[in-house]
Amino acid sequence: MLLEYADASESAYGAVVYMHSVKEDGTTTNKLIGSKSRVAPIKHISIPRLELSACLLLAQLVGKVRISLQVHQAKIILHTDSTIAIAWINTPANQLKPFIGNRVSKIQTLTANFEWKHIPSAQNPAVIISRGVNPEELSSLTLLWNGPQHLDMLELNLNLLNLQLPVLMNFICRNLKKSLISA
């Protein structure tokens, strides 16, 4: 199974891919397969839009990893800590403003058969890429090299999402295209 993570900050955004395998004795391992990062544009872009750009970068990266490793039947789970980006990805692209809709359309095309899930920022290894790290600390960051260890903790926390739903819906509605309906 491939596990992928995306994250963004005001200074950068990035994506990271792991291979998750289960050994015959039942133990599991995650190994870093690849990562990609981009510097955030000089022009101010909101964090949700940067998170969406990170999701697009992740979708492109996983396509390249699947081709390189010839992994076509593996279960693909993509993770982000942005509930807004997940909501946009699950919205028809033609209902969104152009910047968002264009990226959502590409993401939907590239990840049509994949699953997007929310992950808390503290468990998201892509946070290390987006926020940076001192070179001296890099070799000791097990979260980056091995990914999160407890996959059961990565499941969506519905109670948290339900608390954030009104705020989330308000933000999404502000980014929908305005449509004129006449009779």
Automatic annotation (TrEMBL):
Annotated GO molecular function terms are: nucleic acid binding
Q: Spell out the Gene3D superfamilies in the cross-references.
A: Ribonuclease H-like superfamily/Ribonuclease H
Listed Pfam families: Peptidase_A17
Q: Which PANTHER family match?
A: PHD-TYPE DOMAIN-CONTAINING PROTEIN
Supply the name of the protein: Integrase catalytic domain-containing protein
Q: Which organism is it from?
A: Trichonephila inaurata madagascariensis
Lineage, highest ranks first: Eukaryota, Metazoa, Ecdysozoa, Arthropoda, Chelicerata
